Recover the amino acids of this structure.
C-alpha cells in the first residue's frame, strides 16, 4: 500500500522530519536519530580490569598469567557504547598510562557521535603512541554509533556475515605433556596456531602432530635471525602441514625478510613489523600478508582502512588480537568477512570475561546481529 510521507513518518517512528530513504530505516534508527544535535554530550568513563588467563602463556620473549585491560564506556543520551584497551606488558602500555591518556580525552566538546573521523582524529592527536588506549575510545564510539542506528558494523560496512573465516586457536610454547593437553582442549577449533621461535620448534610441531593432523599456522615472534635457517625451517614446516608463517624474522631485517618471502613455499605475515597505515605500504613486497590488531592500530576506524589498503595491494589479511575480553574480539570480528585468516581467540584464553559477543561455532567466527560491535554485558565489573 502506498503511504504518504506523514503516514510513513508516523509508522516508522521518525518524528524529527529528517529526510531519509525509507527502505534503509529501522525502527531503532528512526527512534534514535532524534537525539542527534540536541546539545547532548558524550561522556567517556574507564575502569581498570585484570584478565586471568586459563594457562600461563609463553611466547618467544616472555611468559605471563594475567593481562591488564582498561574497560571504557561512552554514554550518550542513555545509550552506552563499550570499549577496551588490552595491554600485554611487552607493548609498553599499562593501567597507569591508559588512565593518564584517557583522562585527557574530552568528548564533551562533541555533540554528534556520527562525526567519527573528527572525533577520532582528535583522540589520535592528543599524544603519540597510546594505541591501545586510543582503541578503547574508538571501539566504544563504534559500539555507540552502531547502537544508535540499530545495526552491527559488519552490515554498515556492507559485509556478508556468512563469509567469516575459521579462527585459529593458539598453543603457547610448553612441555610436550602440556602441549598435548592444550591440543586436546582445542578440539572445537579447526586451525591451531603454534608459537615458535625457541630451540624446541621442531619438538613443538612433532608433539602437535602426534595428536592431530589439523592445519597449523605458526608465529615465530621474530625468533629466527638467519634467513637460510628460516627457509630450511619453513620448508620443513610445509611438509608438516603448516599453512603460513607469522613474523619469522626480526622486523628490522627487511632485506632478509623480503628474500625469505620470495623463496618461501608458505605465505609470510607481518605482525611485529606492522602497526598502522604507513606500515602496510612498507610491508608490501616484504611479506605476503599482514596481521592487523586493534590495540596496535588505534581501533576499528584504522583497521578497516588498513584492510582495504592491503587488499588493494593484493596482500592477504589476518585479523589478530591480544588476550582480551569479548569486547575487542567482537569489535574486530565485524571485519572478519573480508579477512582470509582470523586469529581471534583472545577471549577464549581468559576465565573472567564480562561480555558475550561474537561466538566461535564449529571453529568459525560467528557474528551476532546485536547492534554496534555485537556485544552483551553479562557480568558486572
Ligand atoms: Mg604474532
Amino acid at each position: 500500500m502506498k503511504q504518504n510521507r506523514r503516514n510513513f513518518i508516523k509508522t516508522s517512528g521518525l518524528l524529527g522530519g529528517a529526510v531519509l530513504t525509507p527502505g534503509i530505516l529501522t525502527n531503532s534508527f528512526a527512534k534514535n536519530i532524534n537525539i542527534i544535535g540536541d546539545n547532548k554530550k558524550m561522556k567517556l568513563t574507564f575502569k581498570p580490569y585484570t584478565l586471568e588467563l586459563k594457562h600461563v602463556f609463553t611466547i618467544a620473549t616472555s611468559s605471563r598469567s594475567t593481562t591488564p585491560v582498561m574497560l571504557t564506556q561512552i554514554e550518550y543520551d542513555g545509550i552506552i557504547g563499550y570499549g577496551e584497551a588490552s595491554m600485554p606488558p611487552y607493548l609498553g602500555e599499562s593501567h597507569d598510562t591508559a588512565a593518564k591518556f584517557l583522562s585527557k580525552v574530552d568528548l564533551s566538546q562533541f555533540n554528534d557521535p556520527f562525526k567519527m573521523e573528527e572525533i577520532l582524529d582528535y583522540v589520535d592527536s592528543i599524544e603519540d603512541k597510546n594505541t591501545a588506549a586510543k582503541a578503547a575510545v574508538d571501539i566504544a564510539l563504534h559500539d555507540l554509533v552502531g547502537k544508535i542506528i540499530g545495526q552491527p558494523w559488519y552490515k554498515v560496512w556492507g559485509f556478508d556475515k556468512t563469509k567469516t573465516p575459521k579462527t585459529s586457536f593458539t598453543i603457547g610454547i610448553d612441555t610436550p605433556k602440556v602441549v598435548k593437553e592444550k591440543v586436546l582442549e582445542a578440539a572445537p577449533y579447526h586451525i591451531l596456531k603454534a608459537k615458535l621461535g625457541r630451540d624446541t620448534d621442531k619438538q613443538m610441531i612433532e608433539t602437535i602432530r602426534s595428536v592431530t593432523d589439523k592445519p597449523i599456522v605458526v608465529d615465530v615472534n621474530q625468533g629466527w635471525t638467519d634467513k637460510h635457517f628460516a627457509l630450511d625451517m619453513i620448508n620443513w614446516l610445509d611438509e608438516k602441514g603448516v599453512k603460513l608463517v607469522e613474523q619469522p624474522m626480526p622486523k628490522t631485517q627487511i632485506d632478509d625478510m623480503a628474500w625469505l618471502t620470495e623463496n618461501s613455499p608458505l605465505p609470510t605475515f607481518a605482525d611485529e613489523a606492522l602497526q598502522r597505515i604507513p606500515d602496510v605500504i612498507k610491508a608490501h613486497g616484504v611479506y605476503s600478508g599482514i596481521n592487523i590488531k586493534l590495540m596496535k592500530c588505534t581501533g576499528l576506524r584504522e583497521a578497516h582502512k588498513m584492510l582495504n589498503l592491503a587488499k588493494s595491494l593484493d596482500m592477504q589479511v589476518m585479523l589478530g588480537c591480544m588476550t582480551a575480553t569479548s569486547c575487542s574480539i567482537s569489535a574486530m570480528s565485524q571485519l572478519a568477512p573480508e579477512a582470509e585468516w582470523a586469529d581471534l581467540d583472545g577471549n577464549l584464553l581468559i576465565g573472567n570475561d564480562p561480555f558475550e559477543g561474537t561466538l566461535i561455532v564449529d571453529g568459525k567466527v560467528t557474528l551476532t546481529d546485536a547492534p554496534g560491535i555485537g556485544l552483551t554485558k553479562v557480568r558486572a565489573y
